[in-house]
Amino acid sequence: MGKSSQLLLSLKKRHNPVSSSTIGRWIKSLLTDAGVNTSIFGAHSTRAASSSAAKKAGVPLIDIMKAAGWSRSSTFERFYYKPILSPQVGDILLSSEVPSNDDLGSS
Known about the structure:
Elements (H helix, E strand, L loop, with lengths): L19 H14 L12 H11 L4 H8 L4 H8 L6 H9 L12
Helix pairs in contact: 2-5
InterPro entries: DNA_brk_join_enz, Integrase-like_cat_sf, Integrase_catalytic
Pfam family, one: Phage_integrase
Keywords: DNA recombination
């Protein structure tokens, strides 16, 4: 069996590396489940959504900055802080549920 340097592999037989579009589809599915309007926000929005949800949940800003690799709070405030209107969005994003085996297909 060949070796892969890919971080994420399919759980389905053959265990091929998954493509970026497959990962994007998984993230978009989680966003939809969280009540996020995916016609406006896509997989690229998760960093802003998760850090904003953490702030709303009361996580200290210093911890958010460490987790994201930011050295200045202005980075979060200027580019990533978005008000969260639905309380369930933060709960789902912070719980980071793993997709089921049925959802984990190869690309």
